[in-house]
Amino acid sequence: MSSQSTPSTDAAPNTTAATADDRLLTVRGLETEFRTEEGTVRAVDGVDLHLDQGEIVGIVGESGAGKSATAESILRLIDSPGEIVGGTVDFDGRDVRSMNEAELREFRATDASMVFQDPTGTLNPTMTVGKQVAEAVRSNDPSLSGTAVKERTIEIMERVGIPNAPARYDEYPHQFSGGQKQRIVFGIAIASEPDLLVADEPTTALDVTIQAQILDLLVELRDEFGMSVLFITHDLGVVREVCDRVLVMYGGSVVESGRVESMFAEPHHPYTKGLLASNPGLDADVVGERSAAPGRLRVIEGTMPDLTGEFRGCKYADRCPGATEDCRTAHPDLESVAVDGDDREVACYRHEEIDDIEYTYDHEPRTLSWRATATDSATPGVPDADGVGDDRDGAVLSATGLKKHFETGNILDDLLGRGETVRAVDGIDLEIGAGETLGLVGESGCGKSTAARAILRLHEPTEGTVVYQGRDITAASKAELREVRRDLQVVFQNPQSSLNPRRTVGQILRRPMKLHGIADGGERRERARELVTEVGLDERHLERKPGDLSGGQQQRVAIARALAVNPELIVLDEPVSGLDVSIQAQILNLLSDLQEDLGLSYLFISHNLSVIEHVCDRVAVMYLGELVETGTTGEVFAPPYNPYTEALLSAIPGRADADDRIVLEGDVPDPSNVPSGCRFHPRCPHKIGDVCEREEPAVHEPSDGHGIKCHLLREEYRDRVDWEEI
């Protein structure tokens, strides 16, 4: 695979000087409506866009902006209760909207393909992957013999990076990793060598390393087949990585479009500026250094507007920090604007005054009135009335030699010695100080979540000790553990599965207080009102159930529930994964506020390195059950690195210094069959040789407290890598 990180300037078309022959897709005035019980939703409201031959165009915006509805309307995938009610879709001189069923079927089979976000939902679990790719091959060319179809299928599987494709032809989707399943979906999509590929959030749920592989694959396929790509995402770093142009959508309409680098350097719509400012790693590019409010992101207040009614003004006016009375008259039309040679289109009355429109950090210091009561402050390390605990400089929690192994197979397998040991967590040491955020990073399957659950004793550790405030909780009884769990809370990735759908928000917040005997009924209700306000919701939300809330609101409820019992430490397991960048910024700022005001400690688990860099004091990098690097955030994000850390950092999309990105081959090995020597050596870009395969590396400390487990840090091998050039 290539390590290309940005589209080649030779391959990318010059869209500012495109001729009629270059134009593949032209959309004018596209309108799509969905009829619901609440009214008619104008999901796509007069969208204009174009796509040239070999061009990758990104569509970005929050959930509900109309991105997917626009793409599905272009391919005529809208079903009842949805309907395309206006506009034209011209594909290479043909009117897609006027195609009959036979023409439409041929168009989708040969000219256009779509890749969806969730490959698990796309692939048929009852069919082998080979048959599913073969079905697409046969649909494109019915004249092929069975042997020719299989040969072509294996070629496609190999082309999209499936190792040992002939042997895996007869395997089922559940036998493939998430990244491999997405590669199969890409293989199905390119079987017809389409002119247009629509990719709808194809990397959202993937690890940063697998995401890098998929993005490289996308660019390679574009270059090889000359495809045009419509790329839908809410990840602006990904847009910077692969797209030539970008369209920003809000409330069903395009509010700004132009060349990617030009728009990232100088956005002219307040919404574009807000999205960029909300994104960790990109915000400094837009609003300057963050020294004015360290650890915080600028945020877009409010939510996407209700699209069931008529708008009396600009759709963005209620959330725009620069809105004036003129903005309340009508939604502005797209206006052509020249910005440093970029033919930009902007729908904003104040685009010429964009520098005067600033986003805030959304921060007003608050303290829960009941946080500093005599009863609740008795535990060492819990903040006093000033928000600072007595033991702030000490360790709140430490884990030493922690292991969690799982045995596979049944009783007969155990008797016959056929079972296997899955070494999910294999001897790690962690320490979290009072008021500190420790980030735990690594790919899926590295053992991050299992380690957190073992620390909390949601999984019983196989070996090792976990000490909280001087107490060994691995030896605690059930009664003692119940007491400790009041101080150790957890927020899971998916609030939809962790919140009881049958209870109201008020009941969800009061229940843990009741279980731990905190306060009486009236005091619990008052605390619930305080909590819901503290996490940025209204008291009216107390009577609603989780299903009535957005994903971001549900995650706020999950955080409020964790706070309800006055904890000392919260484990945050991918708390912002999958959220819109604007909601992500609000949640990250909220966590920063709560830590500052309440003196909380966090174990923050994530595969998003930009988020980790933004919020964490220290970082532990985990690979295949082991810690391979630990240190302060500044130390871990600067050379020298463990090669695995280096690969993770280089895979962050949209980083200005990612021209020579490292793309790791393959997936994390099976933890029931870990490699000998260094566990990372089969994938390591700096593998020395036999020493990596034979010997387990020692931990070296290039500076005090910065530990790197790698042979390259040995004196005799240090000259093999020029870390300063990485």
From TrEMBL:
<dbReference type="InterPro" id="IPR013563">
    <property type="entry name" value="Oligopep_ABC_C"/>
</dbReference>
<dbReference type="InterPro" id="IPR003439">
    <property type="entry name" value="ABC_transporter-like_ATP-bd"/>
</dbReference>
<dbReference type="InterPro" id="IPR003593">
    <property type="entry name" value="AAA+_ATPase"/>
</dbReference>
<dbReference type="GO" id="GO:0005524">
    <property type="term" value="F:ATP binding"/>
</dbReference>
<keyword id="KW-0813">Transport</keyword>
<keyword id="KW-0406">Ion transport</keyword>
<feature type="compositionally biased region" description="Low complexity">
    <location>
        <begin position="1"/>
        <end position="19"/>
    </location>
</feature>
<dbReference type="GO" id="GO:0015413">
    <property type="term" value="F:ABC-type nickel transporter activity"/>
</dbReference>
<feature type="domain" description="ABC transporter">
    <location>
        <begin position="406"/>
        <end position="649"/>
    </location>
</feature>
<keyword id="KW-1003">Cell membrane</keyword>
<keyword id="KW-1278">Translocase</keyword>
<keyword id="KW-0067">ATP-binding</keyword>
<keyword id="KW-0547">Nucleotide-binding</keyword>
<feature type="domain" description="ABC transporter">
    <location>
        <begin position="27"/>
        <end position="276"/>
    </location>
</feature>
<dbReference type="InterPro" id="IPR027417">
    <property type="entry name" value="P-loop_NTPase"/>
</dbReference>
<dbReference type="InterPro" id="IPR050388">
    <property type="entry name" value="ABC_Ni/Peptide_Import"/>
</dbReference>
<feature type="region of interest" description="Disordered">
    <location>
        <begin position="1"/>
        <end position="22"/>
    </location>
</feature>
<dbReference type="InterPro" id="IPR017871">
    <property type="entry name" value="ABC_transporter-like_CS"/>
</dbReference>
<protein>
    <recommendedName>
        <fullName>Nickel import system ATP-binding protein NikD</fullName>
        <ecNumber>7.2.2.11</ecNumber>
    </recommendedName>
</protein>
<dbReference type="Pfam" id="PF08352">
    <property type="entry name" value="oligo_HPY"/>
</dbReference>
<dbReference type="Pfam" id="PF00005">
    <property type="entry name" value="ABC_tran"/>
</dbReference>
<comment type="subunit">
    <text>The complex is composed of two ATP-binding proteins (NikD and NikE), two transmembrane proteins (NikB and NikC) and a solute-binding protein (NikA).</text>
</comment>
<keyword id="KW-0472">Membrane</keyword>
<dbReference type="GO" id="GO:0005886">
    <property type="term" value="C:plasma membrane"/>
</dbReference>
